[in-house]
Structures are given as C-alpha cells and as structure tokens.
Amino acid sequence: MSCIFCRIASGEIPSHRVLETENVVAFHDLSPQAPIHVLVIPRAHIESVGAAQPEHAAVLGELLLACRQVAEQLRVLESGFRVVLNTGPNGGQTVPHLHAHVLAGRHLTWPPG
Ligand code: 5GP
Ligand code: ZN
Q1: Among candidate residues 73, 71, 61, 53, the one with its CA nearest the CA of residue 23
Q2: Domain annotation covers residue 95
Q3: Could you tell me if residue 13 is inside a domain?
Q4: Is the pTM of this model over 0.90?
C-alpha cells in the first residue's frame, strides 16, 4: 500500500486525529495554512473528485458532514470555515487520495491563488 493517506487511514502512519467514523477519518494537516487546517478523507481509496463515481455518493455526503462536525468540534461553526477539494494538477492536488481541507481560525481571502 503506497498511498500515504491510505496508510494514515489504516493507522500505519501516525496522525493527529480529530474524528473518525467507519468510512471517514479527519486529522490535522502536517503543514497548516491557517490556525485550523484539518484534512478529511474517505477510508476507501478514491483518487480525486474527478475520479468519483455514483457509487461513492454516500461516502462523499459523509465526508461533507464530517467537515461540518470538525468545524463544530473545533468551535468555528459560527465564525466560519472553508472546505477545499483540490483536484488534479491545475487544482493543486499533491496527494492522489481524495481529501477535503477544512480551513478556519482567520479571515480567508478570495479568490485563491
Ligand atoms: P493537496 O495539496 O493534495 O490538496 O493537499 C495535500 C495536503 O496533505 C497538504 O496540505 C499537505 O500538507 C498534507 N500532507 C501531506 N503529507 C502529509 C502527512 O504525512 N501527514 C499529514 N497530516 N498531512 C500531510
Ligand atoms: Zn489512498
């Protein structure tokens, strides 16, 4: 198993976990870009949003609800947060295992670079 996020999901590579369910895992990003920067991933290896299929609908829904739960647990539901899914080379995706970034704790500018 060479995928780094599959290895994080299985626990083979340690991470600072925020929550985990049967289907998704959330953990702090190694290189935070905001005071709160958490990654939420499906345990199943789906390469990207671009590779997602209709049979992934349930886990993709769970992933977004897990982002909400991370925001609630870290107390930024009211102040706000950003959910980002970088996809493919021009999207800036560097790890080919689908992941949502939950960014919060400062005012985030728009548009992104
Ligand atoms: P991407 O650029 O693909 O959207 O996001 C990948 C993210 O994974 C980056 O923000 C990077 O800091 C994070 N990352 C890469 N390797 C590791 C790791 O081993 N542990 C953790 N916690 N985060 C990682
Ligand atoms: Zn993977």
Answers
A1: 61
A2: yes
A3: yes
A4: yes
